[in-house]
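Reopening this ticket.

The earlier resolution said the output was attached, but the attachment link was broken on my side. Pasting everything inline this time so it's all in one place.
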Amino acid sequence: MQTENQAEKINRNEFLKKLGLSGASLMAVYCGVTMTSCKNEESTTPATTTDKTVSFDMGTTDYAKLLTKGGFHVDSTNSIVIANTSDNGYVAVTLVCTHEGQRKVQYSTNKFLCTAHGATFDNKGNALSVASRALTTYKVSQTGNVLTVTL
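Inline output:
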């Protein structure tokens, strides 16, 4: 028997059953409440192609780091990360991770990674771990010190 100060510890399932929820209504609560706290990979919408272009002048201090292998720039306004990779030259990918839609993609040591949950992607944006889908990639062209990304 419990004293007044002792609280009965029950799990979520037992709590919902005590509220009178069971069967289909219990499943509706689980699917409608608990599973929406973490986005499903299939619900992440990839970036759409709009044929918009964004330019980066590597002759300026803001983008000079792109001249060095391993250098990268996060453009939050356009939701892209552009990197100077060791094997593919310049690559631009979406800032939005395909794992859970977090805007946390960066570039580090020859791979793109999402700092939210540790998803990793190769230099072409292909999923290596955690995420199962590749990042959206964009065409990058170079004229002198200016990189142009077509979104």
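Reporter confirms the inline version is readable. Residues 99 and 132 are 7 Å apart (CA to CA). The beta strands are 53-57, 72-75, 80-85, 89-94, 105-107, 112-114, 120-121, 127-129, 137-143, 146-150.
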